[in-house]
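SEQUENCE-TO-STRUCTURE ENTRY
===========================
What this section holds: a protein sequence and its matching fold, both as plain text.
Tokens: labelled as protein backbone structure tokens, with as many entries as the chain has residues.
Question of interest: how does this chain fold, as expressed in backbone structure tokens?
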Amino acid sequence: MATSERAKPAYRERVYDLVLKIPAGRVMTYGQIARLLGDGYDARAIGNVMHATPVDERDIPWHRVINAQGGCSTAGRTLPPDLQQLLLEAEGVAFNDSGRCRIERYLWYPND
């Protein structure tokens, strides 16, 4: 898929539709979302979509998407730098001193 096609709203909307389903206190990984959405999606593209998430009335829970090691990948992209971790901790997700959560405990799988 060409880069210009990835910029189309339908591409982003599929990502947002899935992220909107992640319950509070649960997470999905960039790669997991890419695998579920199929051809034309990869972990890096999901990260780019999450980084470009617009602030709108849908209030997309971008913070519930983390890396495969159970860590946040938004340092340097948010203010404060640990905003993603703070938001997840407010939902009950616990992180260790290395800034990682027990992914097997918090990972969410859609049932459809």
Observations:
- The beta strands are 28-29, 65-66.
